[in-house]
Amino acid sequence: MTTTDGAPVTTTQTGAGQYARADQYGYADLLTDDERAVLARLRTFLETQAAPLVADHWERGEFPTELLAPLAGLDLMAPPALTAGGARPRQLFEGFRAFELARTDASLATYFNGQASLFRSNVLLGGSAEQVARWDPLITRFEMTGVFALTEPGHGSDIAGGLATTARRDGDTWIIDGAKRWIGSAAYSDYLTVVARDAADGKAKAFLVRTDAPGVQLRKIGGKVALRMVNNADITLTGVRVSEEHRLQRVDSFADIAAMLRAMRAGVAWIATGVQAGAYEAALRYVLERHQFGRPVGGFQLVQDKLVRMLGNLTASLGMVVRLAQQQDAGIFRDEDSALAKAWVSARMRETVALAREVAGGDGITLATDVARFFADAEAVYTYEGTNEINTLVVGRAITGLSAFTR
Predict the structure, then answer these.
(1) What pTM does this model have?
(2) CA–CA gap between residue 216 and residue 193 (Å, rounded)
(3) How far, in Å, CA of 237 to CA of 31, rounded?
(4) Which of 123, 207, 232, 270 could form a disulfide with 127 if both were Cys (CB 3.0 to 4.6 A apart)?
(5) What does the pLDDT read at residue 160?
(6) Longest dimension (CA), the chain
(7) Angle at 80 between CA 77 and CA 86, to 5 degrees
(8) How far is CA 262 from the centre of its chain?
(9) Which residues contact 304 (CB under 8 A, 6 or more apart)?
(10) CA atoms 140, 42, 48, 274: torsion sign
(11) 82-131: per-residue pLDDT in tens?
């Protein structure tokens, strides 16, 4: 295969071109050819291998574990073309990676984000140089898998002041007691990053705890109406022993945990944007195929009004998360920026999926159209990594210089 001037076309160029041609929203030109090629490979996997499985697994409330190995094999965390010479992939690329996953299914995006953003950030931001050097290559290849275990049964938004899980030093080991809740994908992971309060100084510490360690018990949370494919767990830790070498050495207070959350929250804003794309595209397919009164329902004025509102929400959300990624690529990481993106984009997502459900009518509550899945999953995305209220207060504090948090 050659270009019009006779030069050979590489696989990278072909994939990049395919991704650019499929761009419906006008943002592909912000990515490099190598980034577009990786994303094209991801999209092909999602469309051919993942999409056919998700509706059935969503209804059964089970994760399609057969996708774990091929997803890891895509080498999306450290693609060779994007990491030559020790470089890190751009935040912009990582954002579109989350967007593509969520555009197919929010649970898939949540699983991958748990490894690539949450667990990896735990080590990169909390680990010593030696720990990062030892563990990060394993994490990027999915040879060492993990999840972030912060939230507790009685503490969500107030976890900074209410952290009840404790860690007690005993020579070269620590003994951890407590409980964690809503920990997604723990059942498929090797490690939990457990945040616990040091019994000696009262400060937060973080530990990599094996999921199969004595004293660790995981119980699947059932009865969910959103992110049904995600295996969320209630976890109890009873006298769990962890070596000092598995304590993240640069976590000495909750401020260090907050730095991790700052990096993670941006990824959820991208997921909320991808959910909008999935819902919008599913709704558009439906209204072009569905006929009423002798014509496609997409030809009716009120349906088109809803489509335009959905596309407006999605386009604006993309603009916000793209700008956030550009700032982060420039080294600007601020709580208020990621909190604003998470709060605002998640609210737009809620409206977009509701409009998608409306235009699909009764079929919008069935899994056959895909709309119902995005509609339900949006509720979980709206809440996790900071509720709307908490993120709003973070931004409000930055605007005014006055904290409205209760104490």
Answers:
(1) 0.92
(2) 13
(3) 44
(4) 123
(5) 73
(6) 78
(7) 85
(8) 13
(9) 298
(10) positive
(11) 998 888 999 999 999 999 999 999 999 999 999 999 999 999 999 999 99
